Every structure is written in C-alpha cells, then in structure tokens.
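TICKET #2291
ISSUE: user wants both folds in one file
ATTACHMENT 1:
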Amino acid sequence: MALITDGFIDDANSPIGGNIIYVKNDGTMTLTGNILATKDGLANAFIVLEGYNTTRGDNPTGTNRPLIAGGAYYFALDNYWHSKNFRFTTTGTYGLRIDYAGIYENVKVTNTTISSARYAIYVGGSSAKVLNCEASNTSPDRGALYLANNILYAHIAGSYFHDSFAGFYQANSRNNIVVGNVFDSNTHGFYSYNGSSDGTILINNTFYNNSSDGLYLKTPSFNTILNNIFDSNGIGIYLDVKLDS
C-alpha cells in the first residue's frame, strides 16, 4: 500500500495478534485521516507495525526510518500493539498514542503546533513502554511525552525529550519507571503537575538546560531518585509538598 488507512487497521480483514505489518522507507507517507485502531493484539502475541529501510528487519535509525506526515491527524493504536522504527510529524492534539501494554520503540515524533494542550507522544494506558524514542513539542503548555491520568507501571527508557514546555508531562500517574533518558532544553524536564507522583522511579537520567526546573514532582511520596545528572537547569529538583497543618 502507498498509505496506511484506518480501514486497513480496523476492517474485517485487519491484523490480529501475532501479525507483523511492514512499512518500507519509500518516500513520505501523508495521512489523509486519523488512524484509530480499535483492534487489540494479545498479551502473548502483539500486533507489530515495523518500519524498515531496504530489508525487512533491518531496524533503521535516523532518516532511514519511514516518515509519516500526520498533519492535523493522529496515529492511535490500541492495546498490545508494538510500533517501531518510524518518524512522525504532526500539528494535531497528539502525534502517536498508545494504550494498555503498548510499545513505541525507536520512533521520532515532532509536533510543531502553536496551539495549547497538544502532545507528541500520548500514553493512554497502564503498563505501556516508550523505548529509545525521541520527541519534541512546540505547544506552549504541554509535553513531548504525556502520561494521562492514572497511568500505572509505564516504562520510559533510553529516550530523548527536548525543546518542549515539558519533556515528560504527567497527571496523577504513579509507580512509573523512568530510566536512562535525556531531558534537554525544555521549560520543565520532567513535570508531574497535578495529583500525585507516588512511586515514581527515576534512575540514570540526565536533566540538562531546562529553564524552570529539571524535575518537578507534585505531592511526591515513596519516590526513588537515584544516580541522575542535573546540569544547567533553573532548579535541579523541585518537590511540591503540602505539609499537614
């Protein structure tokens, strides 16, 4: 196909758990509508959407990854999907969304919006993973990576979040593991802005050149902050704690 469509993802003959959809790096794929998958993979058999350059399975990097131009549209996958080896551009509410136990790996998402309340990568389900990704977002008040309300046990590892209002933006999400990431040149590197950040684990991350703060945790409790680097931030760590009167 020259273009992935919502109909292909969700029609009667759509992929099922264990299937792999390969997408070749063969010119820009421009979306003509939202991709909103309602079909789930299986816990032991994900649906895989995999980009390649010249040979299936070659795991390209940089500009050798297929480019999907979303425009105002988004690409949203449901539970137990594994999407890897893509570049995605958008001006929409978000570029890529993933839900329960889904995985984004080796994807680069750039949201060049000037509107409020928009994101690059949206995590809408618990136990999701964002691995070795890159994201930036020019929305004036949101994040490159967003964890929606009450997300639990997400794993964010080896990724680069930069040049955004917040590199990582979460609301009342708990027990998430954030390891080996770089938060660079944002207003807030990691911003837990509302509710609770209980049980957040941050290990081996680098927070660099974030103008307001590298790490902002709202009402933190039982957090682990270990072996991180904080350099050239407005404030290194800001713990917003409400003490009992």
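ATTACHMENT 2:
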Amino acid sequence: MLRIPLHIERILLVNDCVIIPDFGGFILRRHAAVHKTRECAFLPARKEIVFNPTLTHNDGLLAESYMEMYGMDFNEAQQAIRHDVSALQATLADDGRLTLEGIGAFRRTDDGTLLFDPASDATSTYA
C-alpha cells in the first residue's frame, strides 16, 4: 500500500505545498472566481493541484506527518519516506505510469519527460 498519497492529502489540507524529497512538490494553485456574463454562469474560486519536479528539497512536512501518524521519530520517518519514494520511482520506471489515488497520475513521455494529470475529484477536495 502506498502511504504517500494519504500524507499528501493531509498536508495539502493545511498547507499550499508538500515536497516529496527526491521526487518533487505538489502545489495548490489558486484560481479566482469567474463570472461568465454571456453564459449567465458563475464559477466559484477553486484550487488545482500542480506538480513541480524541481522542488525536491526536504522541508520536513512529510516527515512530520509520518511521525504524527505512525509514532516514529524523525530518523525513522526519513527512512520510511526514502523507502516509499523508492517504491514510487520503481513503479514509475517499471510501468511508465503511476497513479496516486485522489491526487493524480504520472506518466513518462517517449523522451522521458514526467507529466502529471491531476485527479478530477482533487479540485473539490481543496476548494
């Protein structure tokens, strides 16, 4: 079972960013409310999950979440995170695709670029 998606969701409920060390960062991008006069429609403000692969520096939020949930000390949490990140990377390498439930899916293009598609229900979670 992948533990990281649960922690990403927990952290994003109270922070606008969570960094997965040696993998990348998930950021909540805000979109303002929009009034479409022509269609007589109003779209409420929302937040969208985006992924930035250059955000890899460990900010400690993920370790803190592991420590709280599993009763680990900092070193144990760091070790568990490294193990979980290795599992994510192995799945991505083996399958060329990785789905994080409630967050989104990753896929590699032919040239090796990592693409992220947010889950359709993720936006409503963080509105």
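RESOLUTION: both attachments delivered.
EXTRA DETAIL ON ATTACHMENT 2: Residues 10 and 65 are 8 Å apart (CA to CA).
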